[in-house]
Protein 1
Amino acid sequence: MVNASEFNSSAVAAVLPVEQYVAGLARKRMAAGVLFRDTAGRVLLVEPSYKPNWEIPGGAVEADESPWATATRELAEELGWDRSAGRLLVVDHVRPQDSRPEGVVFVFDGGVLDETALVGMVLPEAEILSAAFHTLAEARNKVKPLLADRVAAALEAVEQGVTVLCEQGQRIT
């Protein structure tokens, strides 16, 4: 049997300094996007200038930034909108791919917009070429398959009033 003083001294010796412990933790990239719909149920996609596939508004979470702050910042940067993200629709764990490490992607609800909302958008010429509403079928032809699956899960989450968990875009809850 180990007495308390022996246990405490061996436990203290085994405890790593905080900096060393933190340095050994896994790192995950994070991103946040916002799902906007129109009254016909189509989703808002943006056409980036720097890659061939379309996206939902959003982007990478920066250091010391929350995912919901990222969503708000990206709406301002990409669309010129000053609005907060709505409720959380999707949390998606994505495996490492290409040169990117594994990550977690959050999708927030942007609500329902009408066509006049697009008129007020201020697209940054260097980043976003255009924005438009698309059906899920149309979106599948414009976005990467992983995002298409995530958007489908987000639409289900809206319809069911829940937050869904996904792995690689596939709903698990």
Protein 2
Amino acid sequence: MSRGMVSPMEKRERWAGRWLKRLAKVVAVLVGLGALLVGIGYLNGRTALGRAPAGARLERMMVSPQWEDGAFRNPLPLSDQPAAALKELMGASDHVTPSGPLPVVQIDPARFDSDPDSGLRITWMGHSTVLVEMDGTTLLTDPVWGPRASPLSFMGPKRWYDPVIALEDLPRIDAVVISHDHYDHLDHPTIVALAGWSVEFIVPLGVGAHLEHWGVPPSQITELDWWEDHSVGPVRIVMTPARHASGRHLFDNNRTLWAGFAFVGPEHRVYFSGDSGMFPEMEEIGARLGPFDVSMIETGTYAQSWSDWHMGPEQAVAAHTMLDGRIFLPVHWGLFNLSTHGWTEPIERVLVAAREKGVITVTPRPGESFEAGRGGESRAGHGSEVAVASGEWASAGAAAFTPAELPTERWWPALPWRAAEEYPIVSSGSGGGQ
């Protein structure tokens, strides 16, 4: 071969070398962009992680009866089965999320221009977000207006429908009540938006650190321990025990408290469970603070491998009776995919258990209101098919009440679901509340 001439093999090698260099540059650029996106996501998410309690706040936490060895504890410990949880994850239902749009009710803000005739109006907005108008006071529980139950805007459980009302279109809120700091209950973008409002925040011990980090003035934050109370207008808000956990990242497990709430007004009483497995103190809550006109108890997001964390449908109905509740509103379902069961399974099983126990159960669509005051009718807040509930509603010391028109429409699709006999959910150490 003459000097200066290049063999075909050398040409191919040079060509391959040039393309490898170009490919390496492309990969380097993609890796750099990926790292940049992850970094941006981390910085944004880091803000959403919140802030650890410190100083006087931490000192107060450390004298709580619930504080032990650097964290809050449940009197009845949680039992987990990681291997079984992985197995359940592999066998998740084919219907964990809706296959199409849901028939939610978009709220006309004018609905709230007048006070409820009965003195008690409840508006469920999906999951655990509920607007409670009672005895001239308006409370908002676990408000979640953000797109995901996650610290990241591009990853994590995504809501199935837009908020049923814009945050700025809500009526005047007297107090925001937050049960614990998990992402599907304490939503960073929502709190940032509410930080400029003249509204009180009632939260468990330690959760105030997150709120202050996100701009809520300390003067608007009240932190409570179990059985402590704080009055908002004529309504006494009592923080009640719960069996759950807390944490927003790997290194802050149980560093803030979790709780339920009793709203005790001069004319009405409402219970909100937050998140909780079954525990014996339910009866004590009912005895000390009941009877309740409405109990709002979590029913979804359950699995046998972590059955202590959430009640599940049948135990939620049992808890309602232990609390001496009148009308049962199932919450903690209908917005996020947070477990392996079908998304309609919780409400289907609730209705079966409620029929067996004679419990009056409402099934409003997200965005639908109903009134549940004593001594008068209960009216649905939207033109849905409404059934007349049967049975009398009365007990010693409570005004007689006969439920009339309540939202009981089956607005969800008919999908396969497992019955309690096939897949029972029973919290350890509680006897299932039976």
Protein 3
Amino acid sequence: MKKIEALTVGIVVLSMFAYVAIAPVILVIAQQDNAISIGDAGASDSDNKPPIVANPTVDPLIIPEDTDNEPLWGELAELMVNVTDESKIKNVTVKLSAIGGGSKEPMAMGGGSGGGSGLGVRLAVMFNIGNYTENNLPANEAPALWTVYNYSINTSVGTARWNETSGTYEPYYLQVNATDRYNNSNTSVSIELIVMKNGDVMPYNGDGEVDFMHDALYLVRHTKGVPGYENIRDNIADVTGDGEVDFMHDALYLVRHTKGVPGYEILH
């Protein structure tokens, strides 16, 4: 009996020491978890400001319609914005509904109806391509960490918008939506993009038509080095999509296209 009692007392004493050793650890973990939860809640209460979106850019500003739905040289535009926020950025999207886009264009988000028209709202999630710190802030403010986002697009056939009144191609303004982890959103910034008809090389900013007398003959003279025909937009003139503007490929192709020769219906 004494041996059993001694064993029992030993176990109880050991258990007490084990509790003393373990209990504080459990308490610390619980406090840390609670601090994280409280910290998130505090940030949620205080971070009610939308992200800041700056420096909307596009390169190049002008691209031709992608008439064959296969983006080749000069038919892609890179959209870029810089974003910063007090908390973590959840995503940055750009609205592409107005310009369509090729079938290979990865639509990472979408759905819903656009303005009751029954057309799906086409949103693309922009990619995080890097960060930088802006240090030119007042001494009492921490340096702002900015994230650069980009997305490359082509445009569907029929998206070139020629305005007869102004005699210009009308630009698109593609709306950016930057959203942080608390669903504060900024939709105030848009990226300008101009779409021209493929092959509309003359005059320099186009005339809304692609024909033999203006565009094809101009491209022939340009590729032959005739004085007075130097000024041209290479990505509009490269109707074969091979990255070069020359006589044998582009000029002759555009001549045959404007003359209705079978096999030359599509400008690449």
